[in-house]
Design a protein that fits this description.
320 residues, 3-stranded antiparallel beta sheet, 20% strand, alpha/beta, 13 strands
């Protein structure tokens, strides 16, 4: 996208933000769905500057994209949480998957943010990358703990159709991914990081408030191409077509949310689980899952057993 096209997109995005967020009580903002730091400094300051000043104001960033100028900009406009896409500390693995950054770029980005007083940094890591081993994952986690980042997200790689990895024929070993996930949980359980969701670990008080809204079905507004919103019980999907969006044809679909099912599906991703009354109609399944220690039922709440979260998809399927 040229700078001219980016400016046109920002014009349309600014109008949508002003129209949809005006007068709303907004306490969290998350700017992502890509790498906003691909914008030039003026564009970055422009779009971040029109967003509401929220209690939690997060932006995603690829490590190589963060410069001193852009670090100054985000702190000036009120950003107080940055999510860095590390994936791995092994530069050879990063090259294989086509990442443009090195581990040193990540360290430089953390340093730039810390020097400016930012005290809430997340690092994303991936499990199941080509040539990645259990020892490699353990080393990545150990380095992040030593760095003192406040939040760590660990996701299992899914190879999407059309991507270079898909075209190469690469398929992650799911058993190895499960072992990697267990190793992350084991390592972080010995530290001051708490797993509060299947893939997310945080020091006390640094849980991502914005993402918790998704998992607890609180209302949220999504702006931009392909963005999604939940308003009342209505899910709103913006058009994925850039031309339509620039022409003001923003909304693609509106559908009634199946909130009962979604509260079960999303809530069971949290270590706090769900109220028992959401699944009392599934007594046979509850009894069976409890008997084999896949779930815990306590204080009228259902949670997935601490050592069974890697089976969460199968467990959730039983209860919806």
């Amino acid at each position: 996208m040229s700078e001219y096209d980016a400016d046109r997109y920002l014009d349309a995005l600014s109008l949508e933000i002003e129209r949809r967020c005006n007068g709303e009580d907004i306490d969290t903002v998350f700017v992502g769905g890509g790498n906003p730091f691909a914008l030039n400094p003026l564009q970055l300051e422009r779009i971040l500057g029109i967003l509401p000043k929220a209690q939690e104001f997060s932006v995603e960033c690829n490590p190589e994209s963060l410069t001193k100028t852009k670090a100054d900009i985000i702190l000036k406009v009120g950003v107080n949480r940055v999510s860095l896409g590390l994936q791995s500390n092994d530069d050879d693995i990063l090259k294989v998957v086509g990442r443009r950054h090195s581990y040193n770029d990540f360290l430089t980005a953390v340093k730039l943010l810390r020097e400016r007083g930012l005290s809430n940094i997340n690092a994303d890591i991936m499990l199941g990358l080509p040539n990645q081993t259990l020892d490699s994952v353990r080393e990545t986690v150990a380095r992040l703990v030593d760095l003192g980042v406040e939040h760590i997200s660990a996701y299992s790689l899914k190879v999407e159709k059309g991507t270079p990895l898909y075209k190469s024929g690469y398929k992650p070993d799911e058993d190895l991914q499960a072992d990697m996930y267990d190793s992350v949980c084991e390592a972080l359980s010995k530290t001051n990081y708490n797993r509060y969701e299947v893939s997310n670990f945080a020091r006390l008080g640094y849980e991502c408030k914005h993402n918790l809204k998704y998992w607890t079905l609180e209302p949220y507004i999504g702006c931009g191409v392909s963005a999604h919103s939940l308003v009342g019980n209505i899910r709103i999907s913006n058009t994925p077509n850039l031309t339509k969006y620039l022409n003001g044809n923003i909304v693609d679909t509106q559908t009634q949310a199946d909130t009962d099912t979604e509260r079960i599906m999303l809530g069971l991703r949290l270590t706090s689980g769900i109220p028992l009354n959401l699944v009392t109609h599934k007594q046979v399944q509850l009894d069976r899952l409890s008997k084999v220690n896949l779930i815990t039922i306590k204080n009228n709440r259902v949670t997935i057993a601490k050592d069974k979260f890697y089976l969460s998809n199968a467990i959730i399927a039983e209860l919806i």
